[in-house]
Write a structure and sequence with these properties.
Layout (H helix, E strand, L loop, with lengths): L6 E4 L9 E4 L6 E8 L2 E7 L2 E9 L2 E7 L4 E2 L9 E9 L4 E15 L31 H4 L10 E9 L2 E8 L2 E4 L4 E15 L3 H11 L5 H5 L19 E7 L4 H14 L1 E7 L9 H13 L10 E5 L8 E2 L6 E2 L17 E5 L4 H16 L10 E6 L6 H15 L8 E5 L14 H11 L3 E5 L2 E2 L2 E2 L4 E2 L13 E6 L12 H7 L5 E7 L5 H9 L18 H6 L13 H15 L3 H7 E4 L12 E2 L3 E2 L3 E2 L4 E5 L5 E6 L2 E7 L5 E5 L7 E8 L3 E2 L1 E8 L6 E9 L9 E2 L3 E10 L5 E9 L5 E5 L1 E7 L4 E3 L4 E5 L7 E10 L5 E11 L3 E9 L15 E10 L5 E9 L5 E5 L1 E6 L3 E11 L7 E10 L4 E10 L2 E3 L12 E2 L5 E3 L9 E3 L8 E11 L3 E10 L6 E6 L2 E6 L7 E7 L2 E11 L9 E9 ...
Parallel strand pairs: 14-15, 14-16, 16-19, 20-21, 20-22, 22-26, 26-27, 29-37, 31-38, 40-48
Antiparallel strand pairs: 1-3, 2-5, 3-4, 4-13, 5-6, 7-8, 8-11, 9-13, 10-11, 12-13, 17-18, 23-24, 24-25, 27-28, 30-32, 32-35, 33-34, 33-36, 36-38, 39-41, 41-45, 41-46, 42-44, 42-47, 43-46, 47-48, 49-50, 50-54, 51-53, 51-55, 52-54, 55-56, 57-67, 58-61, 59-60, 60-67, 61-66, 62-65, 62-67, 63-64, ...
């Protein structure tokens, strides 16, 4: 089957504050995979806008080019130019061919944009070995003195290695070439590339994927832009139970048995290998060959192992020497099919110990943690995050990593109590305070569920603030040990006497249950990427949109990451972090070698106190049974074992139903059931195997008939469903005169026919009832909602048996993309609304749910008197997993005041499911071109030496404004304006400067912050643009006279200023709304009052920001109260009928 994936990355076009944005076309920056199959794929990249930031190195001023979503791949000392860096997956054995099928380039002069500084040279990432009191600066004179565009491959593909039978490669697209002498950029604004996998053996490719497939590794390949799912639901193979290898010194064989028994119950096939066994041996080569044999001999039905646990100190179980430095590396025990590459095929960890008591401590802590037998688990809510001391690097790299963690995941919104230590400022105790060390040790001693430190350390612990091996024996966190990460040097260098990670793990009943750290020095850039994700702009306040996936994202996966992007075990953390470093083009081989886990690689950390799992199953297993059904939650791992032997283990799908199969149980006894899921309390129970003395009837399965509906054999909204039940008599006698009744407490369905009579079922017989049971699905339901049914079966002897089954309900989910102004035919083709223009409005909508939507009506309206629609209604069908483009046509009144802010209300509905979204747009530009010949159009403020209207120079029209001429030394000519900005946007203007270079300057400031300065003698007007935030902003142009000397005209001109969206008081939707009704308080904690200024009856509908209707209040008159206290905090859209007026409300 050919699989086509339409993959799009829209790079954030808002850029960043304090940057000069250069926009060279109206197309959005985007990277698109347009075709995809196992034979190859096509990509298209558009580049229309980038940012210029002022930077300083070694007291020298430079500029930095920044494109959101891009990285950097320059030689140290050469200009640092943005590139696209992505991972691709290549079929094993195939050759990579690629060709550029379309290329569009443009040359620009940075001088034309007022940028006369050199692009900053690329610098190496700094090691965390020593504090960065002095940072060396690398500058390549030959590069910067070359008068020409330095050559770089437009497209470069580099093969990296093989992991689990799939080859990985690195794709780089370099759209910038730089001439440092002329200060010009050659920019590829559009490039289309076709990648072909030549000499592909499809059968070999298929066999390799089947042989080495593991669902716990699939997320690694999902990060490739040409990812194709290995299996669809109709072609799934057995991948569970998960295989787990333990390599240990024989000294620890007996102390490991409780762990092995537990792991077996949890659903792992455990393979024990001891170094006194000749098949295993005690050298790296012999142990490696033993582990590799299980990988090489794997089949599709007996997949290779997923986890490796090494037990013993390095003197007992040796480790490899790294290839990239003087360090050790356990990673090479897990690299099998890359001919010595550095991409491991297993997740690995180590219980390091020299004696039985040290290993016993690690076993007992792991068992307490995984079985959730803490005397008091409240400590799991406590988190420790530390940006350690380094005056140069901590303010951005250290604080940025910790701020990302607290802003997105580790905060009170997630029910967590955070002990955070930023460097310099921002937390009650900062890491550079003298009390920080004792405070951090106290936090650990009181118990923390998760800890992360980033800065300097050594093999014996964190350096500054100090927390070391010497402090560990005095900790008081008995029964309160969590998972810790040290993004710092050598804290897991387990070839020394006792490293920090070893000391934490070896401590009995305290310390930590897992510690991740480096066996050599780590680096500031790479550690930032490791935790936060790949980004070209390392800042102190990174956001999710501008970064790739790092450890925090893959652990928490709450921003819509696909399941394949979840990294939920300790061992997987290292892979997710190192993969981010690989994507960033950092020191990847070095990082894959040095990062290690002290602890069990399969352990799933808790972040906060977890909740119970929802579980239902039969209370007994009849003797002779070979199946057992469990109803639980999606992604729960269900394992069944008996007498220390694993019977079966499977992962629950979206239905939550797991059907376990095993050889018939031939003797009575106890079966152990263990169910685990990330961030959930494990379900641990026993089920007796008995031989019923009489009849015993269960319901192992059910069948659906939706012929009354759309007849697609799934349960959709609004359908009437008929059910047939399979009934199995597992008892020793026949069952007679059975009454079978179904029930459910779920309010999303209504049972129509709940029972039937079955005359008899013989011993061991399975029968299917007719489709006599039926229920009606509500019109409005949540997609993929699970309904639990109970089945009560009773006979004429007074016996009663209870079974359960789950039914998944399916519904559509309507979503929409950006509103696009298409004014190419009758407008001016600028992609904006302008007065007097006739234009099309295009909005892409899509159905991400699991049911089709028929007979949809999509309507676009506006309350603005300046907008009239020619076409505002579309009729369409939206199938599941499909998209459609809505097309509306409208006219803008010729008399519309430029800068009018207008709202468009999109409503998409089939009569049951309604999606509602408000778009805002600007008609025309709000600007000042001085063509009035005065300053009266806006409230301008002047200084002691005012600017004047000038007709001798202008960018457009007749007039511009010029700074005062003849300024005294050390004086300024100032022009400023304060405006209320109602939506994010840019301020732009054209400037012309004629002054002494580097002495007399034109400066531009927003709210007192200098964003740009220009001096020298311009030969042409240049365009300047900066982003502006919502709220009151003061914009100031200031010409500073600093020198006794003069050159040129000794002044500056500005012209054609375009402001961001302003509230000019010309039209106010809020005022119109308030003339008809008032809402108060807003924001509110949940109770809102609404007062109507008429006596009519109104209906109020409340939607969430995705357009889902959550509340409806009919027949409201004059004063009404509506209550949203049971709804989550956030923004909602209130819509009043029959006026069809919309209003935003906020629930705190």
């Amino acid at each position: 089957m050919r699989f086509f994936l339409f993959f799009v990355i829209f790079f954030n076009s808002n850029f960043i504050l304090n940057a000069n944005n250069i926009k060279i076309s109206e197309v959005d920056n985007r990277f698109v995979v347009t075709e995809n199959s196992i034979l190859g794929f096509k990509i298209v990249n558009f580049l229309s806008e980038f940012a210029i930031l002022d930077v300083n190195h070694d007291s020298l001023d430079f500029v930095n080019l920044f494109v959101s979503g891009y990285g950097y791949n320059s030689v140290n000392g050469d200009a640092k130019l943005p590139v696209i860096e992505e991972l691709i997956s290549v079929p094993t054995g195939a050759n990579i061919l690629y060709e550029t099928t379309n290329l569009e380039e443009r040359i620009i002069s940075l001088n034309d944009y007022g940028i006369n500084k050199l692009i900053t040279p690329s610098q190496p990432s700094l090691s965390k070995k020593n504090k960065s009191d002095y940072i060396p600066f690398i500058y390549n004179d030959d590069y910067y003195n070359f008068n020409g565009f330095h050559y770089v491959d437009n497209v470069l593909i580099k093969e990296l290695g093989i992991m689990r039978g799939q080859k990985l490669a690195h794709l780089t697209i370099s759209p910038f070439k730089y001439n440092p002498v002329t200060n010009q950029l050659k920019i590829i604004t559009k490039i289309e590339v076709k990648i072909i996998f030549d000499n592909l053996d499809k059968n070999k490719y298929k066999l390799a994927k089947e042989k080495y497939y593991s669902p716990e590794f699939e997320h690694l390949f999902k990060s490739c832009i040409n990812y194709i799912p290995t299996y669809n639901n109709e072609d799934i193979i057995t991948t569970y139970p998960v295989k787990y290898i333990i390599i240990s010194d024989p000294l620890f064989q007996s102390v490991l048995q409780p762990l092995i028994e537990w792991k077996t119950k949890k659903g792992f096939n455990i393979i024990e290998g001891y170094t006194d066994d000749p098949a295993v041996g005690n050298t790296t080569v012999s142990i490696y060959n033993y582990i590799k044999s299980f990988y090489d001999n794997a089949t599709a039905n007996d997949p290779p192992p997923t986890y490796l646990l090494i037990v013993g100190d390095i003197n007992l179980v040796p480790s490899f020497s790294g290839n990239t430095g003087n360090h050790i590396s356990d990673m090479y025990y897990c690299e099998f099919d890359g001919n010595g590459d550095f991409y491991p095929e297993m997740y690995y960890g180590r219980f390091s110990g020299e004696n039985i008591s040290q290993i016993e401590a690690q076993v007992s802590k792991t068992l307490m943690y995984e079985k959730y037998t803490f005397p008091n688990p409240d400590f799991l809510d406590d988190v420790l995050l530390v940006a350690g001391v380094d005056a140069n690097m901590a303010p951005v790299h250290g604080n940025g990593q910790i701020n990302y963690a607290t802003d997105n995941y580790f905060n009170s919104t997630h029910g967590l109590s955070i002990n955070s230590y930023l460097y310099g400022s921002g937390t009650p105790i900062t890491s550079d305070m003298s009390i920080a060390s004792n405070s951090i040790i106290s936090n650990v001693s009181e118990g923390v569920g998760f800890a992360n430190y980033t800065a300097h350390c050594g093999s014996s612990g964190w350096s500054d603030p100090s927390f070391s091996n010497a402090d560990i024996p005095f900790l008081n966190n008995d029964n309160q040990f969590g998972v810790m990460i040290g993004n710092c040097c050598q804290s897991n260098a387990f070839d020394v006497s006792v490293c920090f990670g070893e000391a934490l793990l070896r401590e009995n009943n305290k310390g930590a249950v897992g510690y991740i750290g480096g066996s050599n020095n780590t680096y500031w850039d790479e550690d930032y990427w490791w935790a936060v994700g790949n980004t070209s702009n390392i800042t102190s306040n990174p956001n999710y949109i501008s970064t790739g996936l790092g450890v925090y994202d893959c652990l928490m996966h709450e921003n819509g990451e696909q399941e394949q992007d979840w990294f939920i075990t300790q061992g997987q953390f290292i892979h997710s972090g190192n993969l981010a470093v690989t994507q960033a083009g950092g020191a990847e081989e070095y990082y894959w070698e040095i990062y290690h886990l002290m602890g069990d690689p399969s352990l799933m950390p808790y972040i906060g106190v977890p909740n119970n799992l929802i579980v239902n199953h039969q209370p007994i297993i009849p003797l002779g049974s070979s199946t057992f059904t469990v109803n639980t939650e999606e992604n729960a791992y269900v394992a069944l074992s008996m007498n220390g032997v694993l019977l079966d283990a499977k992962m629950a799908d979206v239905s939550g139903i797991v059907n376990l199969t095993f050889p018939s149980i031939t003797s009575v006894g106890i079966v152990d059931i263990v169910i685990t899921k990330q961030f959930k309390i494990p379900y641990i129970n026993s089920v007796p195997v008995i031989s019923p003395s009489g009849p015993y009837v269960i319901c192992p399965n059910f069948n659906i008939n939706d012929a009354i509906g759309n007849n697609n054999l799934i349960v959709d909204y609004s359908e009437i469903i008929n059910l047939s039940l399979d009934l199995h008599n597992v008892g020793s006698n026949s069952a007679s005169n059975l009454t079978v009744t179904i029930s459910s407490n779920d309010t999303n369905i209504t049972i129509i026919n709940s029972n039937t009579i079955v005359q008899s079922i013989n011993q061991s017989q399975i029968i299917s009832t007719p489709f006599v049971f039926s229920f009606k699905v509500d019109d409005y339901i949540m997609d993929q909602h699970i309904v639990e049914f109970g089945v009560d079966i009773s006979d004429n002897l007074g016996n009663s048996w209870l079974s359960y089954f789950n039914v998944v309900l399916n519904a559509p989910i309507i979503e929409s993309n950006t509103l696009i102004v298409n004014d190419n035919i009758l407008g001016n083709s600028n992609g904006k609304l302008d007065p007097g223009e006739v234009t099309d409005i295009n909005i892409d909508i899509f159905n991400s749910g699991h049911s089709d939507l028929d007979n949809i009506t999509a309507t676009l309206n506006s309350n603005s008197p300046y907008v009239s629609f020619n076409t505002n209604i579309n009729h369409l069908t939206l199938l599941l997993n499909s998209n459609q483009t809505l097309n509306f046509n409208l006219e803008i009144d010729t008399n519309t005041p430029p800068g009018t802010f207008v709202s468009f209300n999109l409503e998409v509905s089939d009569g049951i499911y309604t999606y509602y979204k408000i778009y805002t747009n600007l008609i025309g530009d709000i600007g000042e071109d001085y063509e009035s010949g005065n300053f009266n159009q806006y409230s301008w403020n002047q200084g002691s030496y005012p600017w004047i209207i000038d007709s001798s120079m202008s960018h457009e029209g007749v007039f511009s404004t010029r700074s005062a001429i003849g300024l005294p030394d050390d004086e300024e000519s100032e022009l400023s304006i304060t405006l209320d900005i109602v939506a994010p946007g840019n301020i732009s203007f054209w400037k012309f400067v004629s002054s002494e270079l580097n002495e007399d300057e034109l400066k531009f400031k927003i709210n007192g912050d200098k964003l740009g300065e220009w001096s020298g003698e311009d030969v042409a007007w240049s365009y300047i643009s900066y982003p502006v935030n919502i709220g009151q902003n003061t914009f100031k142009w200031e010409y500073d006279k600093n020198s006794q000397n003069s050159q040129g005209m000794d002044c500056a001109w500005i012209d054609y200023i375009i402001f961001p969206p302003l509230d000019l008081g010309q039209i106010s939707n809020i005022s119109n709304i308030e003339q008809q009704f008032n809402i108060f308080p807003n924001p509110s904690v949940g109770r809102f009052n609404i007062y109507f200024n008429d006596n009519k009856l109104h209906s109020i509908k409340i939607y969430d920001t995705k357009g889902k209707l959550i509340e409806c209040f009919d027949n409201q008159k004059q004063m009404s109260v509506f209550d949203l206290r049971d709804k989550p905090s956030g923004t909602y859209i209130l819509k009043v009928f029959p006026e069809s007026i919309s209003y935003k409300i906020v629930k705190n």
